[in-house]
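Lay summary. Proteins are chains of building blocks that fold into shapes, and those shapes determine what they do. In this project we predict the shape from the chain. Here is one chain we studied, written as its sequence of building blocks.
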Amino acid sequence: MTIYIVGSSSTVMHGGWADQFALKMVRRYPVRNSAISAASTLMSLIRMKQDPPYEPGDTVLWSGCVADATALSAGGFTDGSLLHYLEEMIRHVADCGASFLPILIDTWKADMNNEQRPYKDALLELFNHYGLAWVDITEEYERDTGLAELPRQFFNATGHIHANSDMTRFIGDLAAEAVDAGLARLPEGDPVYVDPERKLQVVSVFAPESKAEAFRNRVVNTTLWEPGVTLPPEGRPAGDLDLEAVVFMAVPEGGAVDLSVGDETVTLSARCTVGAGNWQMMLTAYLPNMTGAPLHVPEGATITTAWTTEAKTVEPDLMFHPEPGAGPGRARLAAMAFRASA
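And here is the predicted shape, written in a compact code that computers can read:
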């Protein structure tokens, strides 16, 4: 059995709970941390679709609750799609014959936790539907200490759990105890939100190949593409498609990218709102957050990308800047996520 961990910043960080968990598993099970900073469940699902399939008997720990709650509180994903993506993730794991164990981590912000309580309740209903157990860190902390909220002292100014802290050890211990107790289970159940015939499909190869750049750091090992690439019909899934998301390696100095299908063009910011200098951040631009709907791609159509040559204000997705500036720049395209049109 290999244990995979998916989540966002507090999961991928050095000295985070995932590192503490891995220490508990040393010489017992290999642990692979697939988390990405600022990743919503959509980004985690996209990465999951790009990676090799899990093997029967593997275990997947999901800890994306904080990133999802933050995105929802910022006004994103009002169409309810995060629940759809989470269910598709659960079903993807089940199709591989692997087990799934949610690790629910609340933020220290009581108002955000209260605001997103309906989302958390919907998560629990979904887990129950698929016969899953879960670990709720807030509930476990209250059981141990009598405190109903996670103390502010365990979080830094940006809301991340302090590395190598009592809280990261607490979460790592709980996750290890849950795995040892057999709480990771193979999901079983009929679809609730998703259409199994319209699965998310990810494309990460474009043309021409001369615009490809190998990229590797401690989080990802992938190929990036300089804007100016195209995606012809033979390079993507067949049929009429809806383009739901575009993944960029975004940079703080920015650059905007025009994405066109026929006569329709959408301008996307590739400038992240955090970081400075040589900072790079893998971010997902969810088109319905910006335009209210996916971009329709008719069968036989070619998708083109190009740097925007004039500075303009755009409707950005979360963590993208509304004034990205003109290209070219260091930002790169990483992937596109499609679904068959209904």
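What the prediction tells us: The chain has a mean pLDDT of 93.
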